[in-house]
Design goal:
Layout: E1 8-12, E2 18-22, H1 26-51, H2 59-84, H3 90-94, E3 97-101, H4 109-117, H5 119-122, H6 129-137, H7 144-149, E4 151-155, H8 164-167, H9 179-188, H10 191-202, H11 209-226, H12 231-234, H13 239-251
Antiparallel strand pairs: 1-2, 3-4
Helix pairs in contact: 1-2, 2-4, 10-13, 11-13
Amino acid sequence: MTATRTRSLDIETPEGVVFSYELATPAARALAWAVDAAAIWTAIYFIGQMASMLRPLDRDWETAAEALLYFVAQIGYGIVLEWRWRGQTVGKRLFKLRVIDSQGLRLQLSQIVIRNLLRLVDSLPLMYLVGGTASLFSRKYQRLGDLAANTVVARERNWVEPDVEQLAPAKYNSLLAHPSIAARLRSKVGPEAAAIAVRAVSQRDGYEPLARVELFRELAGYFRELAPFPEEAVEGLTDEQYVRSVVRVIYG
């Protein structure tokens, strides 16, 4: 029996901030996979040319090298790119898809390794029949690798970069005095969280006073959990000032 489907993934943080992600359909994932398959087979072709250089030495060495390099290309492609590009490959970038943790946590290297190793099972017997069937019957369009790694593939929205000078003028920002922590925060903040912060700052004068205080308290708490700054960097900052500083860190 087919599980009840959901087209979106809603994640509520402990601070009450809700992020909503549109899940990628099996059709969209298949298109992205087709691009990735073309890239992988191109790499395999060149790998084969490299392996043929071993032919004068020993046929067994050539066969072993081809098998090893094929495995590295097939599995390493996804692992390296999804780790470097935060859940994306060439195909996923082209079709604006991204692998994310199904609980909204930061995507871990172990999850990327697991979901890519299980491609060997998902691709059986051919053309991803096992993985495609699993995603069709999964509530969140997950193949076996996603189920094991606790990941989903979501669509990226087209965000318009805000006018940061208007939202958070280039005054002294104590957070930028700690570039390593600022870089860590920037790497952990997803587009949904950034959009919520920008919307809160840009519309702050339209909120009722109590609602405004509560909103910025929740947002500040969320961002502080992602990358805590030293006490001297945040001393004297209100929650609203802290969120405005975070916007400057993200887009500055």
